[in-house]
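call fold(seq) -> tokens
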Amino acid sequence: MKRKLVLSGSALLSLLCVAGVQAEEGVSGHIEATGKSIDVSGNKAKFSEYSDADSGITGGVEMKYDAESGFLNFNADEIARDTQSFKVEAGQYEKFKLDAYYKEIQHNFDFDARSFYTGVGTNNLTTTATSASLPTNAAAWPSVFDYAISRDQYGAGIKLNMLKPFFADFSVSQEDRTGIKAAGVYSSVSIELPEPVDYETNTFKAEIGYGEDPFFVSMSYLNSSFDNANDYLYFQSLTAANTSEFLTLPPDNDYSKLAFKGRVKLPLSSSLSLSYGKSEAESESNLATTYNTAGNARTNTLSDPLFNGKVETTSYNIVLASSPLNFLDGKVFYSNYDKENKSDRIISTVGATTFTNHLFDYEKTSYGVEAGLKLPAAIKLTPYYKFVNVERHRGDLPETDDDIYGIDAKWSGLEWLTAKAGYERMERDSRWEQLQLVTGTQASADAIEPYIRRFDAADQDRDTFKLGLDISPNDRLNIGLGYKHKISDYTETVYGLLEEKSDSFNISADFAVNNAIMISGYADYEVATIDQTERAMATTVNTTTANPVDTNATDGNYTWTANQKNKSLDYGLAIDMAVVPKVLSLRAQFDHVRSDGLADFTYYESVPAGYTNETVDSQNWDDYRKNSFLLKATYNTTEKITLVGGYAYEHYKYNDQFSDGYSYVWGATTKSYLTGAGMDPNYNANVFFLTAKYKF
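ret:
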């Protein structure tokens, strides 16, 4: 029904817009039909993660109607597929433009997942299983379903510029998301649950402004409303018959933003740009005062059972750019971003434990300068500096200062060669404070926290080098070469992330053998390493707790390290051949993507049971490989009719320690129950396709 409304509205919109267009003026475009035969062995959902993987026939239409008094454009792609889209634009030049669209987006996670709960797809899951008869035979589970989310987007807009230099732009849109995704809970055992997705988001945008040299100014407003049909996901407890537990789902919320943009041209080829934005996000949720966990009834005493969430964000930017001399240009800028959390603080008491929710907000201020200097011998240098200060409502690292400075250089002294180089240095200084726990043992935090620096705000020195060459010795050959080195050293960290380092190389080239044959290719290679040291803590605090190498292996405190290394390689080659110029052409293409990861663990005292420091390492740490091959022929039978046919092959293999040997039920004693999310993503796919296109 939605599709019919959109298409009917689009047709009516088009008729209104082209009123007065002369009938003798022409129409151009094309109509096409495509047939696909798709065969997938393995994980079909992974292969079609963002597409429709079913065999079938689809079509497309493009139409353009252009005249002095008006225009009409219509596009339709992937008709009757789960990824179809329609768009129409119409209007009169220099006066107005109307548009409307409808689009489907598919996101497939896993097909044929299983659950021992019934009611999958709703927010009420039930089962006959209990702690005395926990289900272990996944083949007998009653529910089989797909983890997939469909997004339907549609909207319309109008742009008015008939009163130049004034303009206006208004649009409305809606997005519906439906489907199922995976969620995890703990209820005496760990359980993976099918969470229903039934979201609706409505958005309104408006902008009015004035644009004529030397001024430009605009005001805009955006309002977005999100509605979730389900506030909670209820599921029957495995440890208490006829007892329901629940998982809180995303709450309804509203978002609005008012923004201003302005620009004025100044003498000396200069300009001053200003922007300001103020946004507000609000939500409301009824908090549960009684609930069950692992079959045990709990009473939650709240200072207020209604939670009102409210976050206000204010931002502004000022940029002065100038080019007073033909060999000098530059800019200075200042920006501020302030996120203020005005949500309720609720005091919650469960038994003897009392805590208050923490409200996170922060303010980010930055300013800097950049200059471009043209020197003799075709050299241009661009030095720059930027300072960033971040203040956070946070217990361990409430403030950081970043000094970022660097220089880019470019040399173009030869017609066939351009060289680029750059260097950037960032020095981050953070202010540390002793973390005060909301719950837990403060003595343990006092012992370990002075040695911990969480990497997102920790002191850091970062150096980045980059080099690039563009080589074109003749009209037939183009080569691009690049190298980038990046290293981050977390200078004050004892426990946490210590160092990140990466080196990447890339090359791309295309070569015209003659007027009929073109060869192109690329290769990208990267090696990245991450080093960290962590600390296992016992409940008892002693004087050796924070010692990086603790020789007392019986106290439950020990240190371990992880050195991760990842190597990735992408390369591809394509050949285009005009067998009969303007009549028959062929394309052959091969692409390879791979990643090989290693996690080298070292335990100083307590190695996990069944392992040694030589066998505990993970050799398959996010390893994957994907090969793709395409063979395509394009045959222009006439000036109006084109046939395109071909074959595509894709092979994907994934290995990771945490997904290899997947089991629906795992754990020797306290079992955990999975549904199939992320299970065995490997696949092989063969696709045959044929498209017939008629141009008019």
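The radius of gyration is 31 Å.
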